[in-house]
Amino acid sequence: MIAPRSILIDGLPQELAGQAGRLGLDPHQVEFSAEADLDLHGDPRRTWLVGTAEKLIAFTPALPTDEQVVGPFRLDEVEKFRVFATVGSSFFQVKVHGLFLDVVRFSNARREQFSRIARQLENRRRQRPFLPEALAEPDSRICPACGLPLPARGAVCPRCVHQGGLFARAWGLLRPYSGLLGVLVLLMLVVVVLELIPPYLFGRVLVGKVLRPPMETHAHWLIWVVLAIAVAAMGVSGINVVIGRLSSSVGTRVTYDLRRQLQFKLMDISVDYYDRVSVGSLMSRVLHDVEYFHQAINQIAQGFLVNLLKIVGIGAMLFLLNWRLALFVMIPIPLVVIGTMFFWRYIYPKFFRVQDGRSKLAALMNGLLSGVRLVKAFAQEDRERGRFEKSALYVRDTQRGLQTSMATFNPMMAFVFGLGGLIVWYAGGRQVLGSQMELGTLVSFLAYVGLFYGPIQQLTLFSNWVTGFLSSAQRVFEIFDVEPGIQDSPDAQPVPRVQGRIEFRSVTFGYDPYDPVIKEVSFTVEPGQVVGIVGKSGSGKTTLINLLCRFYDVQQGQVLIDGRDVREIPRADLRRHIGLVLQEPFLFRASIAENIAYGRPEAGAGDIINAARAAHAHNFILKMPAGYDTRLGERGAGLSGGERQRVSIARALLCDPTILILDEATSSVDTEAEMQIQKALEVLCRGRTTIAIAHRLSTLRGADKILVLDAGEIVEQGTHAELMAVEDGVYQRLVRIQTDLAGIEQ
Known about the structure:
With 746 residues, this protein is an alpha+beta fold. The chain contains 24 helices and 18 strands. The longest helix has 53 residues, at 381-433. The protein is globular.
């Protein structure tokens, strides 16, 4: 199934070309044509939504003539465009004279496509650029090759990934250890040669000559033959010890390197990636999927390669002893190869489902344990038990399906190999009875057959491991394939000091590039100024902060610090000059001193204490059982909300940033804690350029400037007094609402 991309830019579909005149359309003026797969009644019928610069019309060719057309709608009369989702399908609607009218209906597989159309038409209605290329942009959640949903937006498709490429990339990780791997191969060759000696000595020499009447002829060989077999066995055992230790050393070093590289990559990936992928899934890959690379070394050293060498060596011995009988040995091999190929195609999806289920279970547990207080506060333990049980049952069932398949396949292969041995017994026995072969040769031959079928059976089981390795390798390499959205420019120059002048110059940005959250925003903050940002939820306040910190890059315009575009400043330098105090401060499971010194690990005890004093945190820290050495629980458990906030302010103070960002720093604490935090913030803001996002507008009365955001645009700016003087202004209305609410609470 290929994802629907039924949209034309600058043209009509062929089936509507003849109808253009009747519809009042000039084909040269058509900007887009999009195909819906349902009619307005929900029946499967092709319907086309056609748009020009002036009007919109829907046409369903298969309906009766009087029902074919919906519209036309003049764009200058439409008050809003939207996609209205229902169960199983969605509608594209226009608002005319205060009423929403259905224009076309479509299955939810096409909702992304029509949502893009609605957003671009809304842009045009608001006098913003209409971007036709946005309509044809492929859905980043769907694989363009096979049409299946991707594990995450923009991820690699598990179905379409090239398996050979995974093996090549895995070998790339092992290349630094190629010397040690070469030693392992040499040791394996020695082991194979030593293992070929005992069957020959036992059959051809011991049975064929020493124990064969008259025994007196070679009786004195007995002790030497037994000693030779013992020495060969001791050699095999000793070399296997070396191989095991060497492979373990290489395997643990490879997994260490891989985990280290993954951690570096995860730290380098942009913030938006973590908005799409769960933390539990990433933990599962780093902790569990990487272990398959350790197993890969063991499989190479003690599994695949050694068995392959055994098959070659033993096969050569079989043909040397009796080439006719050796041909009978080969009879089961084609059946084994066919069975293994069938098993490979059947088992691979099962491995992927098992690991995907484990990943989702890890994500569920991560969220559950992180929010355990909320679970208990709302008495939802039974509900969470049900969710966990459902996820755990899925893992159980997928694992059972995988193990059942393996448990069926392995005995079947053992039976096939057993048939091969019986054939050799029959054919070889007839040759011995017919005096065409010596008994000692048959005994040696049968011993080699037992050794020959063992490695082949192990290679069939090797496919089980390979399928698991491929699915794990794919999940690991998915992380390596993520392109960091934010990278340092090659021309970026270090900035040891900044004055703190901030300028947003015609900035436009959207998390979806074709749906801007910030639209043509421009403002300037002079060094040392305190600027407040207010507005309704979703108006773009935090997005401005994300752009200043360069968690995201603007799509249009510039963000400048001291006249330099932030994209031309190394990220480490930029963020060293910016202090961030969040609404929900994050504290690590570490001591209070370590949390305060997180931005400056080299800071001394005196600096840490001075920062805590300035943040009004020193007194409550001294009351803790171990003072500054008191270890905190998960996310700062053990401290109140106000105390956590003051520790985070001390952390920012210790870094001594030139630019300070306060994101709702006092919105979630009580009045007394807020007063303490405000005192700490007064110290923190002194002499620094400060941008403060606040819902409690009373905290911004002393700001040098207040920016009022609405729907991603600055609609008002000025001091508190200037904005309050604007009759029926947005800021005045927000203050009035908060004042009324405060009066009601009192």
